[in-house]
Amino acid sequence: MTKSETITKSEIRRGHIHSAASSIRASVFGFVSDFGFRISDFLPSFLIAATLILSAASASASEKRLTITANGALGDSHTLNTKAIQQTIDRCAAAGGGIVLIPEGTFVTGSIFLKQAVRLEIEKGAVLKGSENTNDYPWIDTRIAGLEMKWPAAIINADGLTNVSLVGQGTIDGSGEPWWRRYWEARRQEKDDIDPHFKIPRPRLVHFIRCQNVTVNDLSLKDSAFCNLQLTYCDGVEIHNLKIRAPHDPVKAASSDGIDLDSTRNVLVEGCDIECDDDAICLKAGRDADGLRVNRPTENVVIRNCRVGHAAGLVCFGSETAGGIRNIRIYHCRAENGCGEVVRFKTRMGRGGFVEDVLYEDIQADGVRTVFNFNMDAFGTTWLPERFRAAVSPEKGTPVFRNITIRNLVARNCNSAGHLVGLAESPLRDIRLEDVDLQARNPFVIRNAQGVEFKNVKINGKEIEPPQEAMTPPEKEKAAPAGAGGS
Is residue 487 in a domain? Predict the structure, then answer.
């Protein structure tokens, strides 16, 4: 059993996190009890999940198994198989559900859509390879980068399903290079360093939306045109042992987040190995007026035993924070050479929402650029469609970062300890560093922060304290901003 900490809502909000031995089971029930939530609050979805776990352990030989090649799919790296794969999924669902198998071979496809009671299994040696034809990805209603809009469907899609599984030892390949090249060419043509993010539609690799009890295990995900794996408005998610790769040379894989948790709750991410050209694991909750309208948090998340190489950050928060992000635990994770930042928080005025009750624990880093980066003035040059440009009042649009603890972090061969920088209108609140040991060429920059605590924090062997003004306790907590943090 792994020793860790038990955190209750009341303890973490008071800022007193007490040590206790406990285990976090590899099931949805584990992180509910570790956070101190009442299991009755989550019983409907977790009873289903528990039943699913038990039934999976004793799967019957009578479970239907349909292979896509039996329906005409060809794994020859050339034939477009979208129709054959979708027909296999549809037939499996019509027969009451079962397993759809992708066997050894390289099967080119456009967008496919999972159905209720169908598990998609990509076998070892199998590659599901995205078509390079944009017409093979239909435009659908979805959420992209925190905004609800139409966007091309992913290669694998699931909407409104319960007990949905995507598993296997095979590979999903997004064939992303043509889209990356289009994006960078568009960016070169923009003036004033405007980011044309929303001008270049690109399909994600895998997207689950409005699903309950989701399992994604053991796959290799590579070369996505956009985000690799995104979960939006989902409840009850387990992600295990994924290998995710997106290049930074010779062409940078633009917007290639590894795993995005977007207004999603009750999540376990475990044992993933990620190298990409954007955030490795990112927690989001909508942006600006549209995110405040939707007002759904990302909450109750455990991330453990993950490794990150080249990426913008290890585990990141934002910059889409409108619905709020809370009750997050990250531990036993490692950032290696090429990872830009380890503890990465980002938002800006107008985004609204909050990030609160976060614990990083037992983190190792070697060769990263910056260990800590709290940035509340991020990404001000992204082009937005006209309908998403409505101004948000300061009352609703001022974001808050509060009650964040980083404990037992060791970083070697780093360029900078980093930045703890809030806004004048919304200082960082109650940021605690305990047993942090850094080798860094540049010290901390700390500004617009209140209630910062350092306990046994060292840079290059010398114990340091935060500036006196940053140690001042914050004012008595006000109510959460209107439109932030609903359920």
Answer: no
Average confidence (pLDDT) over 213-232? 98
Return d(Cα 236, Cα 295) in angstroms, integer: 19
CA distance from start to end of the chain: 33
Check whether residue 25 and residue 125 sit in a common domain: no
Six-digit token string for 200: 């270049």
- Distances in Å between the Cα of 236 and the Cα atoms of 175, 201, 261 are 30, 29, 12
40 and 175 belong to one structural domain: no
**What is this structure's pTM?**
0.88
116 & 9 share domain = no
Residue 67 resides in a domain: no
Amino acid identity, position 346? K
pLDDT reported for residue 120: 98
Domain that holds residue 408: 99-471
83-128 per-position pLDDT tens digit: 999 999 999 999 999 999 999 999 999 999 999 999 999 999 999 9
What is the domain count for the chain? 2
The answer to whether position 73 is within a domain reads no
Q: What is the pLDDT of residues 43-67, one digit of tens each?
A: 444 444 444 444 444 444 467 999 9
Q: How far, in Å, CA of 190 to CA of 200, rounded?
A: 12
- Give 29's pLDDT tier (boundaries 50, 70, 90): very low
Buried b (16+ CB within 10 A) or exposed e, 57-83: eeeeeeeeebebbebebbbeeeebbbe
Q: How far is CA 378 from the centre of its chain?
A: 18
CA distance 116 to 130: 23
Query: Residue 66: which region, alpha, beta or left (left: phi > 0; alpha: psi -120 to 50)?
Result: beta
